[in-house]
């Protein structure tokens, strides 16, 4: 079973986005290439990671 993980885009920096895991906000931010994310994201966007894909909530 693959879990769903909710993230918030905390920071956009060039070709990368830094995501905060909503279920473990104390953890470090996750750095993800923006090419893997929906193109319309902005800082504060909520994302759902499921089945190896990110989508906006």
What does this structure look like?
By secondary structure, the chain is an all-beta fold. It has strands at 5-13, 16-21, 30-33, 46-50, 53-56.
General shape:
globular
Q: How much of the residues is beta strand, in percent?
A: over 45%
User: Spans of 5+ residues with little confidence (pLDDT < 50)?
Assistant: none
Q: Sketch the major β-sheet.
A: 5 strands, antiparallel
Q: Distance between the terminal alpha carbons, to the nearest Å?
A: 21 Å
Indicate the radius of gyration in whole angstroms: 10 Å
Strand order of the largest sheet: 3-2-1-4-5
Oligomer: single chain
Number of strands: 5
Number of helices: 0
Q: What's the average pLDDT?
A: 95
Structural class: mainly beta
Helix content: under 10%
Order of helices and strands: EEEEE
Layout of helices and strands:
Elements: E1 5-13, E2 16-21, E3 30-33, E4 46-50, E5 53-56
Antiparallel strand pairs: 1-2, 1-4, 2-3, 4-5
Which key terms come to mind for this protein?
about 50% strand, globular, five-stranded antiparallel beta sheet, mainly beta, about 55 residues, single chain
């Amino acid at each position: 079973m693959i879990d769903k993980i909710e993230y918030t885009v905390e920071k956009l920096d060039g070709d990368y986005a830094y995501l905060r895991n909503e279920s473990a906000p104390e953890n470090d931010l996750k750095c993800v290439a923006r090419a893997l994310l929906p193109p319309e994201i902005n800082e504060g966007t909520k994302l759902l990671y499921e089945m190896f894909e990110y989508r906006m909530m």
